[in-house]
Design goal:
162 residues; alpha+beta; two-stranded antiparallel ribbon
Length: 162
Amino acid sequence: MPDATIGDIYEVNDFDPRSPDQRRRPEGSRWVFEKTLYGVPEQLESGSTQRVVHLFTLVSEENRIMKVRSIEHTMTPQVLTESQRIVAKVSGGNFTDLRKQTEEEYEIHNVLSSTKCKHILEVYGCSTRRRTHPPSLGYIFMEYAEHGDLDDFLSYLEYNPE
């Protein structure tokens, strides 16, 4: 699976994909590529590309991983400290078609995440990037699901019961 490109990293940092209720990221901090979670080839009229999902982590100016405190909702509440992470779903295509497709997919995710159900990932935003050589790229920025998709999560629960 391909790593994020320099252009992908710039796009994530320019957009600063965090929910509106969060503060802007601290001065000097930046999103850094951690790993590619998923990649599948796609065939376009203009050639081949891939649909990928990259994981990014927020780091400070001193290159320390930025942490966020949260409360786990279990029988015995506990405060957790975890990395601030986001995923960027990236797909390629013709700029005009891709822009429309990316915005439509974002709207679907946005409607679902607006339900505030803890089982639905939050979507932060979307953008498109026109490149000098095709394909152009569409980005959807979302919350990171530590245990992957539903099948991965169910497998995790099977081996790690509460």
